[in-house]
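Q: Sequence in, structure out?
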Amino acid sequence: TIQASCPDPDLPLHGRVLDSKPGNQHGEQMIFACDPGFKLTGSSTIRCNNGICNSTAPLCAGMKLN
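A: Exactly. Output:
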């Protein structure tokens, strides 16, 4: 049987996906990173399992400067 692909997750503001290939096919994962000066909140990876992502996309929050 063919496994369903997942919808593309929203990219975090001030963030990006490290993989050059979208990870929205069954069994693939996407790895997220934040731009310099921003801290990742949430899971840095999302895995697709038969049409359902195991997590939502993370957020990138600005880091407080001292």
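The mean pLDDT is 87.
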